[in-house]
């Protein structure tokens, strides 16, 4: 038996016993649940668990049929019926039909799930163990969720030989994922990588209990929190996992492939959190080295352990995730593959990353070879994606790279090949943020664009190139960020026809429409922002800072940020070149037409802005605080998605932030109160401004568009009206007559308004961070109810 292993004891009501022997809540035939109509769930007798519908954490318009812990703010799911097939919240239902069948149907009436009980059920019940059971008229158990686990097991649950527990695909995706825990027929308990999307697993286990034998094995979870393995009713080994005090317990095969046992303090339902008690396979990065499959992370990526002791999947330098939201799909190169024609290696080089290895994917291996020879050998081989080198040994790696791992215990270093023409060398730092500086206010941005757009831009840059000073930022070793075109002032003057068509004007400069010529007589539309001029006495000091910040801006990648294409710096002139947004600003989109955008579109725009801000605050390698979030600084692209613009501007222009009403670089109506106090400016100023913007999006009304209140001699705001209408339950009064869709979506309308009001609280510490704002908007976590709003029913 492996020494670091925990085991399970079972106190479930077995199927041969009667439900009458235990306390339960009886749910009779003919009962129906729907996601949008109360009640949406059935509780267990104690209220510790509930079974019913929860909003999908990644899409609030979809619902999951699940069992969860009910008494905590984070409704932790322990079993899910339709993780692979979430249903629309509007129109789906669960029915215990008169014929005794429990059935989940979608809005069209198509059956999505039924338990396949062994007979006609007379009633259903959610027990205080978290077990969902169906019983016959004589109270015999016909079916129970404990016999069909998803990713979690609970105290009182047992697994028989042949049972499997699948990890979910991602933290916010309850579909069956890439790892499985199985109690095999020979008695060995093991964890395997799965050949996703099929349920079959690869043959090599990355953890096992090293037990086998004849006779019956059981995996049992004791009510006290210990987990046991028994053989022929004899306990083989036990490791106590008792946690002092009164706690809820669960054990989950998490989406990163690590099996963790958790405890949660019962006396802290609102403020507590799940604590990891023990973990199996916590060294998965080094142990999961399967000849088949991609490893712990996707192809062309590598695995390392983050500071929270969870797996972090990262891309090597000059690679990016195929899908940021689904990192298990792996990474793709940000450059065109090396040509196999003679001289194809001329524009390629290597980025060295210490402590990184891909143990498989070998094309060839060499001994008694120095590093220079190793580089040259891989460089000449158009099929060589990377080389691994260590003390005279060289391993050439082919696509796709698999089983990548990074850590101080890796004695080798990687030579990652990349093209010097289309990307910059950027070490990934093993998931660690190398720079803890905070940016205030925003200059431009970056949106991961299509390959066609990148190629068109590159061709346009080369086409307008007529100077030896022309270059692509990022072609030099060590420069961080994607390739940005460096333009002359004359070129941008020509591209904008003498800066003749003004698109907008703000505190930091004026934006003009322009166009760059691309191959095949195509035209690439651009937006050129002329920044405030730098004074001559600041020029020398500003030169280096400007380029450093431009490169850092170029490292931002998110679909809800406007893309920075290039720049110009000549003398005191500073210009930024952006991707052109044909639909203009969100201000024009919301308030510029006779009919406001539909409710569904406004919901997506609000979520897009929130996700973009969460990225700037918490996911960038260098945190960026925008400081001027308003509808004018959010643009709308061709697909009607929201793109945040104008971030990083103060850092670029070396502007000092002051707290006077004339010196603040922001907009009246969106200011956070701390701008006028002697308190630190943090990311919470953006949270406040977003709260105002969110209410404007919800109601299609300007915050300062309410006239003058003669009685109080004040100018009321939309936030004031929203608070008042929330307290009195009159939110529909703030909607236009034509906004029927929003009125029908009352629960989400109320949730969005409450999120907005939680963001505009006076004290910064009382406001949620943007990551939690996104979760609250999506419905994956409860809304923080602002003070004096507790009378509201969410």
UniProtKB/TrEMBL annotation:
It holds the Pfam family B_lectin. ATP binds at residue 530. It comes from Iris pallida (Sweet iris). The lineage of its organism: Eukaryota, Viridiplantae, Streptophyta, Embryophyta, Tracheophyta. This is Receptor-like serine/threonine-protein kinase. Residues 1-20 form the signal peptide. CDD domains: B_lectin, PAN_AP_plant. It is a single-pass type I membrane protein. One of its GO terms (molecular function) is carbohydrate binding. Residues 24-147 form the Bulb-type lectin domain.
């Amino acid at each position: 038996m492996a020494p670091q292993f925990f085991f399970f004891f079972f106190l479930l009501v077995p199927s041969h016993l009667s439900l009458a022997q235990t306390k339960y809540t009886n749910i009779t035939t003919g009962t129906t649940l729907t996601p949008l109509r109360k009640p949406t769930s059935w509780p267990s007798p104690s209220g510790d668990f509930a079974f019913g519908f929860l909003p999908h954490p990644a899409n609030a318009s979809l619902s999951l049929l699940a069992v969860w812990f009910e008494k905590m703010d984070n409704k932790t799911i322990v079993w899910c019926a339709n993780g692979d097939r979430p249903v629309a919240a509007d129109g789906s239902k669960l029915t215990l039909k008169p014929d005794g069948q429990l059935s989940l149907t979608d809005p069209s009436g198509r059956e999505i799930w039924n338990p396949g009980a062994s007979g006609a059920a007379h009633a259903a019940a959610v027990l205080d163990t978290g077990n969902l059971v169906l019983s016959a008229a004589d109270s015999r158990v016909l079916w129970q969720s404990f016999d069909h686990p998803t990713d979690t097991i609970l105290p009182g649950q047992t697994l028989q030989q042949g049972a499997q527990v699948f990890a979910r695909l991602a933290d916010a995706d309850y579909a069956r994922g890439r790892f499985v825990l199985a109690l095999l027929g020979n008695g060995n308990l093991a964890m395997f990588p799965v050949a996703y999307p099929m349920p079959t697993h690869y043959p090599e286990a990355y953890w096992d209990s090293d037990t086998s034998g004849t006779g019956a094995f059981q995996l049992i979870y004791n009510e006290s929190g210990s987990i046991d393995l028994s053989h022929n009713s004899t306990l083989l080994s036990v490791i106590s996992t008792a946690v002092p005090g009164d706690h809820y317990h669960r054990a989950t095969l998490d989406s990163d492939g690590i099996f963790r046992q958790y405890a949660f303090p019962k006396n802290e339902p609102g403020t507590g959190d799940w604590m990891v008690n023990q973990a199996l396979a916590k060294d998965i990065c080094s142990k999961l080295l399967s000849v088949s499959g991609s490893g712990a992370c996707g192809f062309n990526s590598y695995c390392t352990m983050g500071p929270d002791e969870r797996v972090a999947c990262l891309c090597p330098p000059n690679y990016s995730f195929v899908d940021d939201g689904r990192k298990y799909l792996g990474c793709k190169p940000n450059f065109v593959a090396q040509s196999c024609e003679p001289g194809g290696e001329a524009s390629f080089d290597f980025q060295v990353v210490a402590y990184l290895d891909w143990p498989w994917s070998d094309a060839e291996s060499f001994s008694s070879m120095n590093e220079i020879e190793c580089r040259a050998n891989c460089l000449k081989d158009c099929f060589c994606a990377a080389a691994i080198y260590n003390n005279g040994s060289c391993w050439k790696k082919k696509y796709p790279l698999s089983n990548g791992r990074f850590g101080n215990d890796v004695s080798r270093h990687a030579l990652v090949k990349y093209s010097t023409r289309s990307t910059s060398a950027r070490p990934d730092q093993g998931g660690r943020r190398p720079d803890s500086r905070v940016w205030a206010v925003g200059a431009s941005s970056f949106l991961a664009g299509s390959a066609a757009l990148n190629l068109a831009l590159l061709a346009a840059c080369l086409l307008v190139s007529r100077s030896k000073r022309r270059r692509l930022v990022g072609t030099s070793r060590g420069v961080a960020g994607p390739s940005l075109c460096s333009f002359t002032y004359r070129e941008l003057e020509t591209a904008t026809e003498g800066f003749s068509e003004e698109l907008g004007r703000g505190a930091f400069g004026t934006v003009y429409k322009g166009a760059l010529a691309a191959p095949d007589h195509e035209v690439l539309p651009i937006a050129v922002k002329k920044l405030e001029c730098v004074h001559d006495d600041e020029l020398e000091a500003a030169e280096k800072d400007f380029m450093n910040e431009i490169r850092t801006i170029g490292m931002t990648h998110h679909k809800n940020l406007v893309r920075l294409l290039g720049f110009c710096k000549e003398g005191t002139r500073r210009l930024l070149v952006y991707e052109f947004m044909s639909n203009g600003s969100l201000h024009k989109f919301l308030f510029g037409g006779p009919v406001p955008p539909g409710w569904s579109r406004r919901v997506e725009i609000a979520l897009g802005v929130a996700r973009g801000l969460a990225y700037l605050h918490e996911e960038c390698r260098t945190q960026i605080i925008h400081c001027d979030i308003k509808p004018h600084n959010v643009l709308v692209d061709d697909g009607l998605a929201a793109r945040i613009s104008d971030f990083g501007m103060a850092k670029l222009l070396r502007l000092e932030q002051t707290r006077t009403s004339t010196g603040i670089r922001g907009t009246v109506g969106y200011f956070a109160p701390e701008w006028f106090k002697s308190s630190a400016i943090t990311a919470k100023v953006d949270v406040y401004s977003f709260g105002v913007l969110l209410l404007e999006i919800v109601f299609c009304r300007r915050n300062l568009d309410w006239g003058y209140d003669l009685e109080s001699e004040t100018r009321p705001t939309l936030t004031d009206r929203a608070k008042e209408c929330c307290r009195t339950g009159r939110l529909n009064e703030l909607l236009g007559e034509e906004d029927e869709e929003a009125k029908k979506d009352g629960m989400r309308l109320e949730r969005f308004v409450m999120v907005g009001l939680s963001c505009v609280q006076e004290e910064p510490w009382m406001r949620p961070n943007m990551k939690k704002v996104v979760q609250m908007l999506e419905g994956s976590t409860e809304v923080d109810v602002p003070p004096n709003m507790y009378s509201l029913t969410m």
